[in-house]
Amino acid sequence: MTLKTGDVKAKDRRYVWHHLTPYGEKMVVTEAEGCWVTDSEGNRYLDGMAGLWCVNVGYGRKEMAEAAYEQLKTMPYYPLTQSHLPAIRLAEKLNEWLGGEYAVFFSNSGSEANEAAFKIARQYHRQNGESDRYKFISRYRAYHGNSMGSLAATGQAQRKYRYEPLGPGFIHVRPPDSYRRPEGRSVEEFNRDCALAIEETILWEGRETVAGVIMEPAISGGGVIVPHPVYMEEVQRICREHGVLFIVDEVICGFGRSGQKFGHHNFNLRPDIVTMAKGLTSGYLPLSATAVRQEIYDRFKEQKEYQHFRHVNTFGGNPAACALALKNLEIMERERLPEQAERSGSRLEEDLLPLMEHPRVGDLRRFGFMLGIELVEEKAGKKPLAPDRVARVLAGCKSRGLLIGKNGDTVAGFNNVLTLSPPLSATDEDVEFIGNTLKQTMEALE
Ligand code: PMP
């Protein structure tokens, strides 16, 4: 369907305040199927970012729409101060996916899931008589959300500095960015160093003041920074040793993106709290969750009524969103999408490997079906490629029918990582198209 787009675009510019990106003419997406989106002018693009890293099962799944519709007809809303069947079923299913015993608190967005995690962690320590534990440690370059606590946990100056002061008590440490490790350190040594720096921070801050460490299994939005397994496993050991809760943000890495059901399944981990959103519904409806280990949840159940978790979320765990999420997980299981993600990611990586010879490509990183290509002025100095040239790559891909992302931190001078996070359902032809288009675009850059 081609629309008369002049009017639509003029109204869009006038009335819609867009997220994040500069004010100007936007693509108005009108239809989507599989990995492909169509705009109001009839142009088709392969969506190499699955929207905002979220449309894991791909577009156009009618059975998901039907699951939501059926639920809306039967019982469209009831708050989780009481309960409803879709929430119970989904929480049980998430336990199966997590492979452990977790109590699940539902919200609507990743930011809210992280806020709930911070509040649960602080209250948990108070109920254990450790009321000085209020600080959280996270990494520079990580993104954890847009609200005053989750943004405080975020380690990207560009998203924060106009809105400060944010929630107090958040401390940042160096991410395990192996590409920029000090000379003479192996990847494994450097990753261990980064983990031990967290232990040092806990001790310097006073271990009795630290409530939690929050991290993604691999930093996604900050430029696809994939840790060596020793890093994650050391961090978990350190958390356990110092009585600090280990919070894993699976908002992007969860639901098959990493090649496993959850990103942390790529390591030998059992987090205390797991936060999730995006791929939970593949973006079809808003829903997020904070899964908390039963032992921690038990400490809340034992308390007197006024000491319960005083946190409510009107729309959190909406029945239609839960019913749709269940269908989403059913599709992922039926089509074995986590396994397919690993296969497609490794094929795409192999296809892109020749790009490592390109003078502007410094590093190629992958976590399942999420890839980052770090662009530099020259390989030796690793100076980030100038923003206008990075923008040219994005525009070049778009003109060839491929939408990709770009992530990093403008303020810190790193906004030079091309990102790819396609729907996990991408066909072999889709994967081939992504590889070919990127290679052609990079060739044209020189
Ligand atoms: N955590 C991570 C790792 C994210 O990437 C995001 C969003 N990009 C969030 C949290 C926040 O999610 P939301 O935008 O749904 O609030």
From TrEMBL:
InterPro entries named in the record: Aminotrans_3, Aminotrans_3_PPA_site, PyrdxlP-dep_Trfase, PyrdxlP-dep_Trfase_major, PyrdxlP-dep_Trfase_small
Keyword annotations of the record: Aminotransferase, Pyridoxal phosphate, Transferase
PROSITE patterns: AA_TRANSFER_CLASS_3 (PS00600)
Keyword Transferase included in the entry's annotation: yes
One Pfam family hit: Aminotran_3
GO molecular function, one term: transaminase activity
Similarity comment text for this entry: Belongs to the class-III pyridoxal-phosphate-dependent aminotransferase family.
The name this protein goes by in its record: Adenosylmethionine-8-amino-7-oxononanoate aminotransferase
Source organism of this protein record: Melghirimyces profundicolus
Lineage start: Bacteria, Bacillati, Bacillota, Bacilli, Bacillales
